[in-house]
Amino acid sequence: xxxKQKIAIQGIQGCFHQQAAFDYFKTELDxxxxxxxxxxxxxLKNGTADFAVMAIENTIAGSILQNYALLQEYRFFVCGEIxxxxxxxxxxxPGSQLEGIKTVSSHxxxxxxxxxxxxxxxxxxxxxxxxxxxxxxQIRENNLVGxxxxxxxxxxxxxxxxxxxxxxxxNKANFTRFLVLSQTEISNENADKxxxxxxxxxxxGSLVDxxxxxxxxxxxxxxxxxxxxxxxxxxxxxxxxxxWKNKTHFENALKAIGTLVQxxxxxxxxxxxxxxxxxxx
Length: 281
Hints:
With 281 residues, this protein is an alpha+beta fold. Helix content is 28%, strand content 36%. It has helices at residues 16-25, 37-45, 65-74, 108-113, 115-119, 132-141, 153-158, 206-216, 247-257; strands spanning 5-10, 29-34, 51-58, 62-63, 77-85, 89-92, 103-107, 125-129, 147-151, 162-165, 175-182, 193-200, 220-228, 236-243, 261-270, 274-275, 278-279. The strands form four sheets. Strands 1, 2, 3, 4, 5 and 11 form a six-stranded mixed beta sheet that branches. It has a five-stranded mixed beta sheet with strand order 8-7-9-6-10. A four-stranded antiparallel beta sheet has the order 13-14-12-15, with helices on both faces. The two termini are 40 Å apart.
């Protein structure tokens, strides 16, 4: 029997990272739970995990800056991406009634993203926790009557909890983009997207010169994120995501910008994902 691939995720089973991994790999997996993103990177670095799934940006919260810094530090290869709709549900012990809920626990971002729903409940006390799935797990393990968790439907299934209310997030256009990371580069003949790190020359217009190359080669710039360079105060590198219809244009651009920057790293060449079932252009 073929061994299952080992996937490092931030959080415990039932978290959104696990759901993103299921959606990307579409097969049975073994999961390595990590308390934080640095631990996730270490598990991939030391070979404990075959791949890691890392959240990188959210349509509401924006970029996760610490993770861009970790990408720069560890220099893993980006071999794929997945956009996951973040659907929040209110979970409690089976047989619970909404009017009997007195406390609601979850990750602080989940609580914030469901503020409107929570304000509609009477005299609710909120409890911040490290992970949405952990909030669900503790209700089951400690048989917490009168307490609910905000988490995804996967957590309800794993921890045998009842969903009292579905899609309680205030903003329904809530997506998180996850990167799939590996220690080695994985070739993909369908690749139409790349992630780069650039360190520019300290010259007037250096960024404009690079962007003009992308424009000339008809590359679609989907992300540009500045990242502080450790040990060089007020100096920044840039994380850039690009898409193309003709890979030759991307290859031409790489050659052209090589003379315009101090340092260039290609973090990954991979197939772009879809957002809400629609390919991102």
